[in-house]
Amino acid sequence: xxxxxxxxxxxxxxxxxxxxxxxxxxxxxxxxxxxxxxxxxxxxxxxxxxxxxxxxxxxxxxxxxxxxxxxxxxxxxxxxxxxxxxxxxxxxxxxxxxxxxxxxxxxxxxxxxxxxxxxxxxxxxxxxxxxxxxxxxxxxxxxxxxxxxxxxxxxxxxxxxxxxxxxxxxxxxxxxxxxxxxxxxxxxxxxxxxxxxxxxxxxxxxxxxxxxxxxxxxxxxxxxxxxxxxxxxxxxxxxxxxxxxxxxxxxxxxxxxxxxxxxxxxxxxxxxxxxxxxxxxxxxxxxxxxxxxxxxxxxxxxxxxxxxxxxxxxxxxxxxxxxxxxxxxxxxxxxxxxxxxxxxxxxxxxxxxxxxxxxxxxxxxxxxxxxxxxxxxxxxxxxxxxxxxxxxxxxxxxxxxxxxxxxxxxxxxxxxxxxxxxxxxxxxxxxxxxxxxxxxxxxxxxxxxxxxxxxxxxxxxxxxxxxxxxxxxxxxxxxxxxxxxxxxxxxxxxxxxxxxxxxxxxxxxxxxxxxxxxxxxxxxxxxxxxxxxxxxxxxxxxx
Length: 543
What we know:
Elements: E1 2-4, E2 10-12, H1 15-31, E3 39-43, H2 47-60, E4 63-66, H3 78-89, E5 94-97, H4 102-106, E6 119-121, H5 122-125, E7 142-148, E8 156-161, H6 162-176, E9 183-186, H7 193-206, E10 209-212, H8 215-220, H9 223-231, E11 236-239, H10 241-253, E12 267-270, H11 277-287, E13 297-303, E14 308-312, E15 329-333, E16 337-342, E17 354-361, H12 372-378, E18 385-394, E19 397-403, E20 408-410, E21 413-415, H13 417-425, E22 436-440, E23 449-454, H14 461-479, E24 485-488, H15 504-512, H16 517-527
Parallel strand pairs: 1-10, 3-4, 3-5, 5-6, 9-10, 9-11, 11-12, 12-13, 23-24
Antiparallel strand pairs: 1-2, 7-8, 13-14, 14-15, 15-19, 16-17, 17-18, 18-19, 20-21, 22-23
Helix pairs in contact: 1-2, 6-7, 10-11, 13-14
């Protein structure tokens, strides 16, 4: 494996060397009193530390629980809330961090009355002799807990046993022809199922060269993604839709062509959020001159509950797709996995009809930890898992038509969040990948309204006033709907998951809680809306 640090420095470590380090950490865990089936919450910034700690857990029979490291522990934020809630839900497990982060985690007892978490430092644990005894696990033992949803409330913990992780790695390798000679590059966070289970574990299964970089290293300069793939002759990589948009935007600013050679790049997985055909097509068009294989783009679908990606489209081409395609085909399932589309009564629908996506097979979770109510709701009587996604079957191929909870219905007409967001993102003055649309309902009203959140490149009043007018006009022309509330925000105000997926539900909750009242007031004043006193009222006068 090759690990990049925040400055782009590289360190190669063989799988054998990682095993030695993991055995040392295992000894440290045991000395700290950790027992088989104990849960360990991960708060690890460094990717090498994360990988080492994960394998130490597997060797000892412990259950890792990866969680995003908070931007700060000095005040309560969404990541701190999620950590606190997970610690309570999992019955107060130990936390592993690095030495620098440990004091911040220990200080949380001043924020939470019942916080008495024991935090161990991987820097201390690794200063031990290698363990000689390895835990003998059962294939059906839980290997990892993947926390999903509930960032501001109690999260759900997806249980995935060893056999599911192995079958997913084997199934996707067979279906996609992954092998030991691949050079694979991931820059998504390892606390996300896509970064670790989908890529790191699969590559370890195949014993290929796996490369991983900190997410921020690429976000700071998206073209570093291309630099690394060209330099190291990368054959396999991935990212969610927003990342392809970032590269497209940067390429547009280049005064001269780059010198990348992407001829080895045969597999670019596109997953993790709604896939926009226009964005993926432009990415491929931009890179054809750098010898990228025309068949490289692979739209995919999966979730934590399925051990990440389990359907793949091998036929995405510029020739058979269009910028106007409302949805992107995400392909056929891997061996051992089944999909079906049902109506509201649970009956399978005809090919081409939209319905509820249900799945079953060798990678589907055995259930959520200690959550009988949700488990009962999540499975049908005949054993299919309800994904919460809307899907369409085209032969054996799956099309994702959105999520039920993301649907916007105004006056009986359905609208797609991603379509509206794309229309706004295409406006030059809007910062790409920081646009979100959600439906909300005010008290004592009978219908939903639509709120748009976006980050303007130029926030001065005159520019903002002009931009808001342009946004409203374009959305009406393109979608045929009026935006009820428009909220210009800073980038930091758009909540995202570790892989950059915007959390619309969280924005909706914040909106209803009044957290954006200041921004809305500013827009009302700019536009002289009827519900706001005119700007002159607030100016000083002589009376």
